[in-house]
Amino acid sequence: MDLIANNKRDVKKSDGNETLLSVRNLSTDFFAEEGIVRAVQDVGFSIRRGRTLALVGESGCGKTATALSIVRLVPAAQGKIVGGQIVFEGRNLLDLSERQMREIRGNGIGMIFQEPMSSLNPVYTVGDQIAEAIRLHQEKGCKEAWADAVEMLRAVGIADPQRRAREYPHQMSGGMCQRVMIAVAVSCEPALLIADEPTTALDVTTQGKILDLLDRLQKQSEMSILLITHDLGVVAQRADEAAVMYASRIVETADSRRLFVEPLHPYTQGLWESLLRLGFSGRRLRVIPGSVPAPLQFPAGCKFHPRCSKGRSDNRCRSVEPELREVEAGRCVACWHARGYEDKA
Amino acid sequence: MTTYILRRFLYTIPIVLGVLLLTFVLFTVVGGDISVELAGKGASGETIDEIREEYGLNKPLFLAWDSQFINHFKNALTFNFGRARDRELVIDKIKRGVWPSLALTAPMLVGVVVISVSIALVVASVRGSLWDTLAVVVCIAGMSIPYLGFIFFGQYFLAYKWGLFPVFFRPDLTTAQNVALPVLIGIAAGLGGNVRFYRTVMLDEMRSDYVRTAYAKGLSTGRVLFKHVLKNAMMPIITRVAMTAPFLFLGSLLLERFFGIPGLGYLMVEAIGARDYSVISAITFIGAILFVVFNLVADVCYALVDPRVTLE
Amino acid sequence: MDFALKFLGILFVAVLPTIAGCDRSRSIEEPNEMVLHHVLYTRIAGLDPASTADIYSRIVASQIFETLYDYHFLKRPYELAPLLAEDMPQISEDGLVYTVKIKKGVYFQDDACFPGGKARQLRAQDFVYAFKRIANIKTLSPNWAVLNERIVGLDEFREYTKSCTGDVDYSREVEGLQAPDNQTLVIKLTKPWPQVIYSALADTAYAPVAMEAVDYYGQDIISHPVGTGPFKLNVWRRGSYVELVRNPAFRGELYPTEGQSGDAEAGYLDDAGKPIPFADRVVWTVIEEYQPAWLLFLQGKVDAGVIPKDSFDEVITGGGELTPAMKQRGIHLKTSMDPSTYWLGFNMADGVLGKNKPLRRAISYAIDRERFIELFFNNRHLVAHGVIPPMMAGYNAEIKEKGYSRYDPVKAKELLAEAERIRGGRLPVLKIAMPGASTWFHQYGQFLQRSLAAIGLQAEVQYMDGPAFQEELGAGNVQMFASGATASIPDAQEFLSLFYGKHAGAGPNAFNYSNPQFDQLYERAEVSRDGSERQKLYQEMELIVLEDCPAAFLNHRVAYVLHHDWYKNYKPHAFAYGLSKYRRIDTAKRAAYRELVKTIE
Amino acid sequence: MSEQGRIVEARPGKGAGLWLDAVRRLCKRKLAMVCLGVVMVYFLLAGFVYLAEMFDWRVGPTRWGEEVGQSYAPPSSKNILGTDIFGQSVLRKTLYGARISISVALFASLISIAIGVPLGAIGGYFRGFVDEVIVWIYSTLSSIPYVLLILAFAVVLRDKTVLGHRLTGIAAAYLAIGLTSWVGICRLIRGEVIKHKDREYILAAVSYGCSRRRIILRHLMPNVFHIVIIDFSLRFVAFVHAEVILSFLGLGEPNRPSWGAMINDARMELSRGVWWQMAAATAAVFLFCLALNIFGDALRDSLDPKLRIQ
Predict the structure, then answer these.
(1) Average pLDDT of D205-212?
(2) Fewer Cβ atoms within 10 Å of its own Cβ: the N or the C terminal residue of chain A?
């Protein structure tokens, strides 16, 4: 099946500059027993059609919460989007009804998750699970949807898709499950694919293949990808742009190449160094001292200051939290010490 | 599959043996002799001896070919349960009462399972909200209200005051009309505990990642719950049903008493009170067989609902 | 949702056949059909009179089976009249030989057990057979005890049946039971037994049963009664309901034309001389709980019923009258004395109680019987001042003045001090055995416990189920026990036999009471054929018992029964059961009530 | 949500850390703490009545037998919850009932744990023949209708003498409940032990030569014991109900008031409009069950390592 030819949605072909998704000042709170956790604070970024934005950060910094907020899947009992805007194809998702939102999920925005094995329903065949989304969004009959599902399996590179469609997730390997997940997510040709750590649970050789697959699908259908990862190597190779998240906030955004060449935020620098030294010199791994603070124990001021060589001794860093400012065209950073930051005040 | 079923059937033998042994020990060795009671007031020793002979109570308990235990075992296996204390054949007694009892308890079980699973799904989907807390409180209130409270209320208001149902069993009505109110009462009384149980099951299930995937596909809550979560939650549901279903044939004592349903609800309680050994061994034997059968059915059901389970 | 629907579908499909499978609808009654609707508060054991002894089985069986003699429906004091017998028995000088002429033209009910389904005539041999059948040990009849050592040769017959391995030969001669011809029955007693006419000849347990039926149905005779009575069994759904229909081959009887004074005013003689039975069908529904029985009565689905203890205030005013609401419904109240006495018995063989009369007396004085009756019987029972209930011949009208049953805590405490002196130290915790474990017995037990505690006696109550209670009682393992007795004949002998020394041990004398003086009087009374002499002896014996105090006598039951206006000829009777034939239904009134109910509720 | 819903493994062998952690987390739940408070009040009340009875203190609940008013007096300012048939205070009976009902449930729980946990652990750890026998025993027990089993035990045990002690109503009741209800916990523990047996930390313990006894007691038990606690908190409620059922069948504590006996006594009074005894006992059961259930749920959430939310 030719994914592009089958694209029924009435969308202008993009020139690569049109903004597909724009997140502005998004804040999401989670309710924990200990109190309210501000999992996403004032987050903003945008993704252009056909491009890949990587959202980078350590575990617990709010990446997944951001992703769930975008599709409004934060469970009502656990959390709530408290502010901001999520503009997708010109509409603010936060203003939509639940019914309209369901139309967007799976159809406009697809999602894949970190644990492919447990993210698929163990008691339905993979074919069923793909066909379900197709039936739902494309008003196709059972048979037609099933045929499409088989085609999707073929498209994500599964051999013998006819037979495989009738198998259950437990009969497949992790990599294959992730392919199936991708098939589920892209079966309705979404404009945006949110991939939440799609390769973390997989072994190294499979990781590359899955990312290649995503690349290929992206090229075929002009799909945008929000790639959530903690792996900077992936960012460097696959993303067009990157946003670095630390402690619920975005601390730096940039073109991924420039982020790589010239990180502005000390946190980004620290992340790069730990990756580079490991990769190129074989010297003792340099790690960022300390660890990500627990959401309820965020320090005052810049949340990174206790781990920052400059911030530790700087009174301003310890008392005033820097907001994200565009320091150059297409580059934003939130650090008092970043070059040119204060000029933009 | 066939070998599996065969093997499971072989496995029933020790269990049935165990059940027979346990009831035998409980009621003959420890529980005492029924002949005095059978003989009636002021009976002489000779009548008692005669009764002992008639019921085989004068035979050795264990260590002989003609012992009470061996006979008890032989009788059970040939479905020859003998006569109850009121001289009716135990097997006739059971045949006569089993249908009314099932007409009462089977819809009750189905009703309770279907309704409480549905409520549990809904309640679990709003976990942590005020509705959830309220549901838990109502469930526990329902569990705390004695069964008789439900019966008194239902019989007095629904049947007598408002005339929606017959107050008592009427031979001129259909069984469905006769059991309608008791079934409703049984369901109402059973909901509390069951909703609570299934809510826990559903909560466990809803934490799974595939639920998030299903939502991400754009499925509605109802579809996620009733298609994805429900099928995954079938295991504990099947287990619970399989544990209860074998004993449905015994009916429900209180409902049958209050609504005059000619079932077997009285059978067990009365048999224990009167030490009616033939009835007790019949019940336990049939119960044990059904229990094993239902376990087997449950195993097959597991394999049907969960592809990860195979019958090996 | 497809999966959920499939799941529900399968479950419902599995359930439907069970509901549909047992659909057997039948109509309750036609508008003008005369059907008696009664309630049985316990399921009945069986309809074979020989092998059942419970009162509810007897109530039903008595409509199907008939005896030689029966109580006159209206006359009081109770008197017997011939039923299957032609007239009253001829009794020999020595009181040992009874010769009874059997009515001609009495047929059994038609049944499949007879050749061609056509029943034969009743013969004297059928009575002989009925007695022998009870004597036959294989029948395991609970009714044997009454006949034990009474009829010449019958005990030998019983011995013979013990040795039988196969069928018992009923043609074997028994000297005391002879049928010289089809219409004559001769019974020879071993010693005079003036109560035989009540205890055996008028008791349904000894009613003639067709031999053919016993042979034909074997053990299942219990559910296939074939008698001579006005009704025959139509449906018996065990534990649910019994339905009798009018016996079309019934010989016919007439409603009594004379009664007691006041009967005419009460309307009991409205039907005098009319052929009975009136009812086309008689239905008993087994209802073990009071609430549904009461609701059905109020709905007019049941003709008569007892008042549930807890609905008493709704029905009866403080003055013992019906409440206006009940009167407005046309409901009638009938009260009647029951020939019963209830007591707290003492085991005289017990080391603590047996030798300590002051202790027993103290316990008796400690119980406030009036409060007991108020709490448990809505004030409707009578205080038992002695053994014999007031309605029976032999009742001592002055017994109340003797004060054996008075509530006197002061005296009780005095006696207790004396009791401790006899005991030589503190009294141990006493045990009371209760023959049931229901709420009622719990409260009863608590009442006794509290009564004893009030005079400083510690007691522990043991609640047992029926079998365990009997067993413990028989084994003499109890100290105190709550029990009672109801007379089955209008002669007080049954009550006094409970205190006869030779009945101690496993016999009916659960008190293990033995007093030579009493025993001597008892033996005299047993063979005395003179009613008034007997009654004098009974009163003497009663005083001996009260003096020795083997029991604290508590109460006599008074029955309160309600019935609807349309239910005619309802006169309470303490001894007879086969009364359905006298009852008549005013169908128009019944229909009107049922309409009325629809508007009030 | 992956961060929020991330599955975190229990730290193997470090029971104490898990427990401390659980307690700390539990303390932060207000509702759970309120419920724990309610449960504690019930237990303290039961304990207090027990002591008061033992030392013959004349306080309200131990004076339940006194006549304080008319028979069946409705609730009033004098008797807040009215009186029963003998004019005894329903309030005092309800308070006293806590002692009987809770001790029945407590002892029954202890008995079922004492039987079920070791059997489950042994069966699950050793497998083979021992396991087969244990499975056979509990399969047999569970294939007999529960009411029949409990009734049979109660009937058979009542008034029997065991080790020189005559079993009165209450002892027979908790023995019957305990002896018949260990199956559930045994099954749970067995399953959990089988799961843990092949985990690395147990293999490690085996490899450095721990005795089997030590492995079961020191390594396995701390990691499966939370199941016992959870099961206990939920089953306790079932036992209070079982006491009600036994009383209904006439096999409960006969001489002293328990909630079950009160409900049973009161059921017939309902139709004469005497609702207060039923209401008082039901409310006592309800509040206790509610508190214990909510607390049990919270305990489960904070103890069960699988469910711990980072």
Answers:
(1) 80
(2) C
Q: What is the pLDDT of residue C22?
A: 43
Summarised one tens digit per residue, pLDDT across range C253-282 is 999 998 888 898 988 999 999 998 999 999
Q: Which residues contact A163 (CB under 8 A, 6 or more apart)?
A: none
Lateral strand order in the sheet of C35-40: C35-40, C281-286, C241-246, C231-237
Helix (H, G, I), strand (E, B) or coil at B64: coil
Whether residue C277 is preceded by a cis peptide bond, meaning omega within 30 degrees of 0, is: yes
Q: Are strands A241-246 and A52-56 parallel, antiparallel or unpaired?
A: parallel
Edge-to-edge strand list for the sheet holding A35-48: A35-48, A19-32, A79-88, A91-92
Contact list, D28 vs chain A (CB under 8 Å): 33-34
Superfamily of domain A18-108+189-275+286-301: P-loop containing nucleotide triphosphate hydrolases (3.40.50.300)
Q: For chain A, give the longest Cα–Cα distance.
A: 67
Q: Contact D1/A33, CB-based, under 8 Å?
A: no
The more confident residue out of D201 and B101 is B101
In the block, tokens 């029976």 appear at C392
What are the tokens at C480? 């105190």
- Scanning D178-207 for CB atoms below 8 A from C yields none
A80 pLDDT more than 90: no
Query: Using CB atoms, which residue from D141, D148, D289 is nearest to B272?
Result: D148
Amino acid at C318: G
Minimum Cα–Cα distance from B268: chain D residue: D148
Cα–Cα distance between A208 and A230 in angstroms, integer? 15
Least trusted range by pLDDT, from B77-86, B160-169, C93-102, C330-339: B77-86
Residue appearing with tokens 């750890």: D125
- Is the pLDDT confidence value at D28 over 80? no
Residues of C in contact with B106 (CB under 8 A): 14-15, 18-19
CA distance to B100, B110, C516, D11, per residue, from B174 (Å) = 11, 20, 65, 62
Domain residue ranges of chain A, discontinuous segments joined by +: 18-108+189-275+286-301, 118-187
Q: D103-255 is classed in which CATH architecture? A: Orthogonal Bundle (1.10)
Structure tokens at C269: 């003689």
Determine, for residues B228 and A110 on separate chains, whether the beta-carbon distance falls below 8 Å: no
Over residues A128-185, the pLDDT tens digits come to 999 998 988 888 888 999 999 999 999 888 889 999 999 999 899 888 999 999 999 9
Strands C177-181 and C97-101: unpaired
Question: What digits encode the pLDDT tens for the residues C546-567?
Answer: 999 999 999 999 988 899 999 9
Are C192 and C529 within 8 A, CB to CB? yes
Q: Domain residue spans in chain D?
A: 20-57+257-310, 103-255
Q: Would you state the pLDDT for residue A5?
A: 39
Q: What single string gives the DSSP state of each residue in A206-243?
A: HHHHHHHHHHHHHHHHT-EEEEEES-HHHHHHH-SEEE
pTM beyond 0.90: the answer is no
Mutation site for D-interface testing, chosen from B15, B25, B101, B144 by largest number of D Cβ within 10 Å: B144
Phi/psi zone of residue A330: left (φ > 0), alpha (ψ -120 to 50 degrees), beta?
left
Residues of A with CB under 8 A from a CB of B: 31, 71, 73, 75-78, 102-107, 110-111, 113, 115, 118-125, 132-133, 136-137, 168, 170-171, 181, 184-185
Instruction: Say which residues have a Cβ less than 8 Å from residue C370's Cβ, sequence separation at least 6.
Output: C383, C407
How much is the average pLDDT of C151-179?
A: 89
Rounded to 5 degrees, φ, ψ at D210 are: -65, 150
Measured from the Cβ of residue C99, the count of other Cβ atoms closer than 10 Å reads 15
Q: What is the mean pLDDT of residues B194-221?
A: 87
Across chain C, mean pLDDT equals: 88
Orientation angle between helical segments D169-180 and D146-157, nearest 10 degrees: 140
